Please model this.
Amino acid sequence: MEPRGSSGVGSGNSGTYTPEIAESLRFEEEIQSLIDPSFDASSAAGGSFTALLGLPANQAVELLHHPGPGEPPASAATDTLRLPFGCSSTFVERAARFSVFATDDSPASSSGGGLSPGLKAEPPDSDSPPTLPAPAGKPRRPSKRKECEKSKVSRRPRWGFLSRKAVAKKSKSAEENTSAAKPAAEENTSGDKLPYVHVRARRGQATDSHSLAERARREKINARMKLLQELVPGCSKITGTALVLDEIINHVQSLQRQVEFLSMKLAAVNPRIDFSGLDHILSAECGPLAVASGCGGGASDPAMWASDTAASTGGIRRMPAPPQIWHLDVVHPQQSSTVWENNGVAHPHFLLSPATSLVGYDPASSVPLNSNRLKTEL
Amino acid sequence: MQATKSFEQAFLKQMLLGIQLSAVSHGSGSLQERKSAIKLSADVAMAVARGSKKWTRGLIASLSKEEQNRSFLQFVLGKEFERPAKICHSSWKIPRSKNIVRRSLRFLSKRKSNIRAPNSSVLAGTLVEKRTQVLKRLVPGGQSMDAFSLLDETLDYAACLRAQVDVMQKLMTTLEASKHSDAQRPKEKFHLLPMVGSWYSTRKGLRKRLSKRPKLTL
Model:
């Protein structure tokens, strides 16, 4: 976290944010000193918002100032951070940064993976004023608390509770899961893009920590539901969680039934074909598309597919490249990608991107793209 | 878009391998056996192509519960198979702290006392609860997920299912087309199975590898 933090701060020098960057620099140093050897709960109250996000300072500041782009979790956080009232943005940043999170004992934090060190909360009221370094804006904070509207101000300390609960849940689940030897939970906690969702309570809403936590949870869920609505056809007009869930359930059920039906049809088609009919298609199809080395084991070769591909009909022989490819494949599957690249074909990336990229899936558009590529190749 | 294409390629490749492995191509066995073998290889292919997600592990775990599938799964997945199978248990429960359980019980009791005057939020809550339960049953491995990750996994799972259906449909049309007219020039079918070629290009390498491994007979 330290090199990332320092490099992030160094690279994040957009000119308008220099005062905040300077403050965050101080925080970065403090956090680095905190994270390094041991964690002291009483004196370690100076955790910054940015450190806890696990982002470099500039990204966090940019999140605060430009909440447009970003993934749904980020956007959920920034949406709530965007002020509905006319308070200054600097106040928000300072408030965000001054909300205090102290680190817990190191074993618990280390179990949580790279993001969770420094992710524990502490009641901010008592500790934050004395322990934080005192930049210029600091003394204004308690007075601002009294001045500004009660609803807003009283919520700020609640961020601490909210995050503590969220983190407590995560740490507990991390501990229990590690004891049961399940790496999935740890992957989940460390794989979250934002461990904290900082919720700004809206005017006139309860400041109870429970309701805050619930509201944060609900907003996360609503963000996901929006994604799902986009994925499932015809869902964007429906309002209401239950109905959308209904549609999603129907969609998933229909897809599963379709898979069953298609596999039955494939089984029916199968004995006639014996899968040798695919040969002449495949032989001509030796596409420009690179190998996605999905299967780890590589399994075995069907062996039926032997030589009759070359001999089979079809009439179209376009195989300048593949014989060379085959030799390479013997050596290393990865090298085939380089051959394709040398042929001037851009190959799709091997790694499967996260789920959100699948949302924009459009079957129709993938087809003409491939045919175009084939034309250019041949 | 790139992600779906690469997923489709990986999926198709894996599925064809799996189908060959299960030796259904020889036309042996009843329709039911062939269908379940194809479905099995399709599911495994989808799980493998997607990588490591909660639902993929749940899917593999649920598939491996049947004894007949185990050898197939073992062969296809290699050493990856044992690790997820050990970790994923169908009866995995979310670990809950006592405080949360106590608090939720208190809320539940409050709700029960409010039953005589059901307000809309409670009704909405129960409706959503019911649907969440159904969704948990649908998505593999969903029993052990909380609501948020359940939605996440549903999103992923739905996208992968749709890709799977698409690939299988394309495969189907190609097979049928080639069945009906062998003499037909396959050039027209290129647009149907663009990703098959990628699988095909690895065939030769795999054949050499096969000679070292024993062939699986089911």
Summary: Residues 23 and 218 of chain B are 7 Å apart (CA to CA).
